[in-house]
Amino acid sequence: MAPRRQTVSMSWSPRSGFGLARSERCRFSARDTSLGVAMLFACRIASVVLILLTLARPCTAQSLQVGAKAGVALTSLSNVRALTESAKEDSGIASAPMVGGFVSLDWDVGFAVQPELFIVTKGVSLDESVSDDGAAAVVLRYLEIPVLAKLYPRRYGSASWYVLAGPSIGFRLTSAIRYADDRDDEEEEIDKRTTTTDLGLTFGGGLEGAHWLIEGRFSPGLKNISADPTEPVVKTRAFAVLAGIHF
Fold first, then answer.
1. Which of 50, 64, 137, 221 could form a disulfide with 235 if both were Cys (CB 3.0 to 4.6 A apart)?
2. How many CB atoms lie within 10 A of CB 127?
3. pLDDT tens digit sequence for 16-57
């Protein structure tokens, strides 16, 4: 007798997603949406970069570096009156810490691809007080992801000069107007007046040693971060001085 054939049927339902039950999917409240989306996007970027680095590693002579950077960013906003009517157009520059990490895939030809992840605060200090109680500042905190091309024009033994450039995307974590004086601190949330993302470019250069680096960079914003299309265009600008280590 001929062996009896057995047929196995499989079905897929759109509701099942990619093998995840509904109860296993990530959910975010309205307040945590921006942070949740930013972290999810960052995880996906990191996963893609690691896969590409793994696949590309056997193809040519190269080295993989992992490092961290920290420093100070000097930032300003154009047309800040679109976010607060009490500000002057010539509002001053604000300073804030900038910290993050990076992965760099270096080829022996003096070229590298370097994705980064930073927590950076951008904004402006206001020349005119928004309230009668003290000076004010507009403060925008972002999770920023630059993807940079890095060139080494000249090397000096274990040290080398480098230049870098590339696009960046920032996910807004918080946005607020701050009031401060000798008596109290106040803060007004302005999430409804600003967009959830910012797009920009990064240009910079620095000096890199065997396990250290110092760097300067300029990052102009390309996107209007004002949520009101009837208001003047608001864009970010930042200049940062950073120091770091890598392995």
1. 221
2. 13
3. 333 333 333 333 344 445 555 555 655 566 565 555 555 555
What three-state secondary structure class fits 94? Answer: strand
Q: What is the pLDDT of residues 174-230, one digit of tens each?
A: 999 988 765 466 788 999 999 999 999 999 999 999 999 999 999 999 999 999 999
Which of 199, 198, 233 shows the shortest CA–CA distance to 83?
233
Q: How far is CA 242 from CA 16, 37, 111, 209, 215, in A?
A: 46, 27, 21, 14, 5
Domain spans in the chain, listed from the N-terminal domain onward: 28-246
Please state, in angstroms and rounded to a whole number, the distance separating the CA atoms of residues 158 and 143: 32
Residue partners of 10: CB distance under 8 A and separation at least 6: none
> 27: which residues sit within 8 A by CB, 6+ positions away?
none
Domain topology for 28-246: Porin (2.40.160)
87 DSSP β-pair partners: none
**How much is the pTM?**
0.74
Quote the tokens at residue 42. Answer: 């960052």
Task: Please report the DSSP string for 131-162 in residue order.
Answer: BTTBEEEEEEEEEEEEEEEEEEEEEETTEEEE
Residue whose structure tokens are 């002579």? 61
